[in-house]
Amino acid sequence: MSHEPGEVWEQFAVALAEMARDLLAQDTVQGTLDRVVEHASVLINGCDDAGILTVRRGEVRPLAATSDVVRRADRIQQDLREGPCFDAVTDRQQIYTIEDLSRPHERWSHFAPELRRLGMGSVMGFLLFTEDDELGALNLYSRRPHTFDEAAQRAGWILASHAAVAFSAARTHQQLGDALETRHEIGEAMGILMERYALTEDSAFKLLKKASQDHNIKLREIARRICETGEKPS
Hints:
Elements: H1 5-24, H2 29-43, E1 49-56, E2 59-65, H3 68-80, H4 84-90, E3 95-98, H5 111-117, E4 122-130, E5 134-142, H6 150-197, H7 201-215, H8 219-229
Antiparallel strand pairs: 1-2, 1-5, 3-4, 4-5
C-alpha cells in the first residue's frame, strides 16, 4: 500500500518527536549516541546500518555503530584518510554521498572499493556537530546502490540536526555532573587534610594544586587518592 508524500512526512515528523523524547531520556552520552544510530537505521528509508565518528586533529574516533561492518568502515576511513564521512567533518560540508559503490569513484578511488567489499552499495555522510577542534559525522550505509534519494537525504539531514542537539545536551549534562563530582571530591580531600594535618583551607588547596603540578596528575585524581587513603600527598 503506497502513501502520499504528505502522509509519509507526517509519519516521519511523529517518529522524530518520539526519537527526541527517547534521546533526552538517556542517562549517558554514550547511550544517546547509541540510540541515535539505532533510530537512523530505522527512520531513514533504505538505511541498513549507521554510525557516528569524530575527527580530532586528523584522527578518526568511532563513537557509535549499529554493526561490525560500520566499525570496519570507520577503520578504513582512518587508514586511508579518505571517504565521504571523513570529508564531511574535515571539509565541513553538510552532506556527502556515494550513490553506487560498484562504479569507479574519482574522489574516493580507494575507499569506495573497500566499502563495496564489505557488502555496501551506497553511503551518505552528514556533518553532525562542530566544536573548536573536534567535528563529527553521522554515517548512513545501504547494501543497495542508488538507495538514498533526495527524500532520504533531506530526512537524514533533519535527523542529524536533531541528533546534534541531543548530543550537545547530553554532553553538557555529563560535563556538569563531572564538574559537581570533582568539586565534591576536592572538597572532601581538603577536609581530610585540614582535619588530620591541621592545615588551613587555603594551605590544603595549595597542597593539592602543587601535588597535581609536580606529578602531572589531574587535581581530581589527587583528591580521589587522598579520599581513598587519607594520606597527605608527597
